[in-house]
């Protein structure tokens, strides 16, 4: 498998009853599904383009764009709310499953909810943040507040401020990296559904709804039967590390891997360690 995979050669579409789902696919072997997080200019390609060549050496790797992101259809509702149904539509339409799933942030949240409600579909679950129960850190976290500020007033400076909150080492935020996100975030043809997900009422709900969120999180985590790996950056300012301790305890077969000097984008900031850790975890079933 070449380390030089392009957007165009891996890009595909699947027709579903709700609209077209865009995805990338590369590699041979058993199937593996990657689910991206949320944020300005995010897509499956933006999150996982660097990891795809490595994972595709051992797996037929599918990278899905959620509705409202990338080149998938624009949903009527909040993209997070429709995420699980879209993944189920994708698996059904592609004839996939059971299979391992890797989800970053929002993608980890969606994957966890599917694993809880459809245990027959997910053989192994890897969450890069996005799951757990934060009891000690303030809510909403810094990264989410900066994200709302960008959505309300999308300037390049605010994009950079948000991106800096996503990593430990801001040196990885090269001009090329920032420009890629800026172009995607301001593309007039791209879905604008991020406004349905991140806004002032959402921040207020996070402040006031912590108890309700805790009940929902505990219910979901305790239902997950698939062997699970939670990967978290020690310096994550979106889903703080201490929240992952609850996932480690509440998910029956859960392992926690903490990466030092690492923020929310573990698969980008600590690419090599992330890939080797995840591949070793997935290989136990092969």
UniProtKB/TrEMBL annotation:
One of its GO terms (molecular function) is hydrolase activity. Residues 30-270 form the AB hydrolase-1 domain. Keywords: Hydrolase. Gene3D superfamilies: alpha/beta hydrolase (3.40.50.1820). InterPro entries: AB_hydrolase_1 (IPR000073), AB_hydrolase_fold (IPR029058). The keyword Ribonucleoprotein does not apply. Pfam families: Abhydrolase_1. This is Alpha/beta fold hydrolase. It comes from Trebonia kvetii.
């Amino acid at each position: 498998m070449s380390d030089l995979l392009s957007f165009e050669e891996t890009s595909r579409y699947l027709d579903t009853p709700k609209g077209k789902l865009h995805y990338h696919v590369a590699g041979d072997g058993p199937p593996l599904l990657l689910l991206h997080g949320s944020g300005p200019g995010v897509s499956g390609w933006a999150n996982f383009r660097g990891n795809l060549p490595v994972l595709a050496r051992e797996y037929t790797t599918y990278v899905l764009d959620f509705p409202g992101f990338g080149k998938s259809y624009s949903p009527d509702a909040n993209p997070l709310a429709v995420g699980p149904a879209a993944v189920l539509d994708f698996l059904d339409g592609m004839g996939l499953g059971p299979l391992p799933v890797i989800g970053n942030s929002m993608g980890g949240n969606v994957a966890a909810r599917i694993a809880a409600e459809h245990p027959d579909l997910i053989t192994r679950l890897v969450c890069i943040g996005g799951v757990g129960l934060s009891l000690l850190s303030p809510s909403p976290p810094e990264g989410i507040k900066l994200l709302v500020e960008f959505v309300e007033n999308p300037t390049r400076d605010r994009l950079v401020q948000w991106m800096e909150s996503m990593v430990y080492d801001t040196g990885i935020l090269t001009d090329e990296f920032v420009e890629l996100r800026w172009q995607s975030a301001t593309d007039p043809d791209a879905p604008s559904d991020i406004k349905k997900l991140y806004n002032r009422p959402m921040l207020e709900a996070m402040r006031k709804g912590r108890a309700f969120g805790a009940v929902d999180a505990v219910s979901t985590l305790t239902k997950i039967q698939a062997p699970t790996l939670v990967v978290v950056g020690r310096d994550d300012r979106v889903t703080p590390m201490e929240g992952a301790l609850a996932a480690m305890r509440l998910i029956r077969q859960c392992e926690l891997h903490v990466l030092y000097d690492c923020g929310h984008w573990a698969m980008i900031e600590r690419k090599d360690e992330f890939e080797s850790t995840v591949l070793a975890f997935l290989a136990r079933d092969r």
